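Please fill in the sequence for the structure shown.

STRUCTURE ENCODING:
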């Protein structure tokens, strides 16, 4: 693979020259369509606008919004002047937002009014009451967030103390072009350009520092794996703030001239409408997104004949869902990408050439330029094919570190540069990796190691099961026992005993769930990751296992 030694801005500029009149971005729910030339020119105006507001190379610009056009413009405009984009989870409330803005040293924050039941503008005004009397032309001096100097409101409307997003472009029109070009010439592909905060399913979120080089080359490999060209069109319904949307989607597109059809916030109907009306050739999603479309009452009314490829990732992919997506959505070249934010994020990938069997049973082989290995989590010793251990990766894709967290960085990346992911995996003789669980998700029942995914994949084959998650719950007798949490198919009738018997007939006794509970949905992060720790906390309360929770589990 030939690596890209360019900045994001240079890649956008080259697309504008190479494909000036081809469609770069098209929204289906609002009047926003741009060619590559138009998009480049728009990003230039906003980049100069940021400079006129005093934003400089290395400054932190946060974006708190759904997949709106302003998100994309902010990303590329910031990149063009070397500012570092800080992505903010759309589900954050005041406690998390205060932590992130403080920890990231954000200087300028762009946000929409709010999302679902959360008003971002109310939150920022509560954190910075100084906004209420601030003239938007002046800098903010906040007691709680001393680094924050500007708040920008995207999506129309106005709020006290906040600059309207569209006004930034007008400010940019008077910024000297020569100075702008000097700024661009000073940038280096190995500069940190993006800080993505890990989901924080345990502990406080950490700011993962990624460079132009990290994310562009990761995106290029991913686009290569799907055989993307300028004739493809990707529907992006995964969040931009997450590496799935930012790298697996946007970076894969801009490194191949592929058109983007973003969905501001996931809804099965919105996505299916866009896939049909725009004749998209690709779509990404976590398994729950595909399940929601496949089970939607209007699913059969849509034409998916143009679909070819895409990525299913973010959490383990049930084999049955993958098969349905291939058969019923025409995604015969669907792929899997595995990694984590700290690795930009991809480490392994299946390709369109891999057999369906490999695409459903493995997460593919290592990326070009990325080394992968399996080690014993206790001793650090390398393990051979077929032996489960911790998945580790090393290469161009590994983060620069966690922002202002040297100890956490040293814990994640060892002295030889290997990132320890915390994922349990095995590799076969041909170099295909299979993820069997998380170190912290592994259930140890009476000394037996149980990998939840194995049981999940089997229970998923039951006709009454729509979705399933298997967790470990405390046990005085065994240390831990297996619990299956199930979302049943709409209208289906199934009992706890039926599920237990189903597993008992087909799997080893120690894998039979001691408990089965039926639920409407699972707790998730905004990026679609199941929060098993929350399910475990709920289960301990539900099953009154507080005493058992005090037993040491080795």
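FILLED IN BY: designer on duty
SEQUENCE:
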């Amino acid at each position: 693979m030939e690596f890209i030694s360019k900045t994001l801005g240079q890649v956008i500029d080259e697309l504008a020259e190479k494909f000036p009149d081809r469609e770069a971005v098209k929204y289906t729910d609002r009047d926003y369509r741009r060619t590559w030339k138009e998009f480049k020119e728009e990003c230039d105006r906003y980049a100069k606008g940021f400079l006129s507001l005093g934003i400089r190379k290395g400054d932190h610009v946060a974006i708190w919004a759904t997949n709106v056009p302003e998100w994309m413009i902010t990303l590329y405009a910031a990149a063009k002047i070397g500012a570092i984009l800080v992505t903010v989870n759309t589900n954050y409330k005041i406690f998390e937002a205060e932590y992130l803005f403080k920890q990231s040293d954000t200087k300028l924050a762009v946000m929409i009014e709010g999302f679902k039941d959360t008003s971002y503008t109310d939150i920022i005004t509560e954190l910075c009451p100084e906004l209420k009397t601030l003239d938007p032309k002046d800098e903010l001096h906040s007691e709680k967030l001393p680094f924050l100097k500007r708040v920008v409101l995207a999506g129309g409307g106005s709020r006290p103390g906040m600059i309207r997003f569209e006004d930034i472009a007008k400010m940019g029109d008077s910024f000297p072009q020569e100075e702008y070009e000097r700024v661009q010439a000073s940038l280096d592909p190995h500069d940190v350009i993006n800080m993505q905060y890990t989901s924080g399913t345990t502990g406080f979120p950490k700011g993962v520092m990624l460079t132009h080089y990290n994310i562009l080359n990761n995106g290029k490999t991913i686009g290569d794996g799907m055989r993307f060209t300028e004739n493809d069109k990707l529907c992006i319904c995964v969040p931009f703030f997450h590496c799935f949307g930012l790298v697996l989607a946007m970076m894969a597109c801009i490194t191949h001239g592929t058109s983007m059809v973003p969905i501001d916030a996931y809804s099965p109907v919105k996505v299916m409408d866009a896939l049909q009306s725009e004749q998209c050739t690709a779509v990404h999603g976590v398994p729950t997104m595909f399940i929601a479309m496949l089970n939607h009452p209007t699913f059969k009314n849509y034409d998916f004949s143009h679909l070819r490829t895409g990525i299913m990732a973010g959490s383990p992919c049930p084999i049955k869902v993958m098969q349905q997506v291939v058969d019923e959505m025409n995604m015969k070249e669907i792929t899997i990408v595995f990694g984590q934010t700290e690795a930009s994020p991809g480490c392994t990938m299946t390709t369109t050439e891999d057999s369906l069997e490999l695409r459903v049973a493995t997460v593919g082989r290592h990326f070009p330029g990325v080394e992968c290995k399996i080690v014993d989590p206790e001793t650090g010793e390398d393990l051979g094919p077929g032996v489960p251990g911790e998945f580790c990766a090393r290469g161009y894709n590994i983060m620069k570190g966690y922002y202002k967290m040297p100890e956490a960085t040293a814990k994640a990346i060892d002295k030889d540069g290997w990132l320890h992911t915390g994922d349990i995996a095995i590799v076969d003789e041909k170099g295909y990796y299979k993820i069997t669980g998380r170190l912290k998700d592994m259930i140890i029942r009476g000394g037996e190691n149980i990998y939840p995914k194995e049981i999940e994949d089997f229970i998923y084959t039951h006709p009454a099961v729509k979705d399933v998650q298997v967790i470990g719950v405390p046990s005085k007798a065994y240390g831990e026992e297996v619990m299956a949490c199930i979302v049943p198919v709409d209208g289906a009738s199934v009992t706890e005993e039926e599920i237990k018997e189903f597993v008992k007939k087909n799997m080893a006794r120690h894998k039979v769930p001691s408990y089965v509970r039926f639920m409407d949905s699972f707790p998730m992060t905004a990026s679609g990751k199941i929060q098993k720790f929350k399910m475990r906390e709920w289960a301990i309360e539900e099953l009154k296992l507080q005493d058992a929770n005090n037993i040491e589990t080795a």
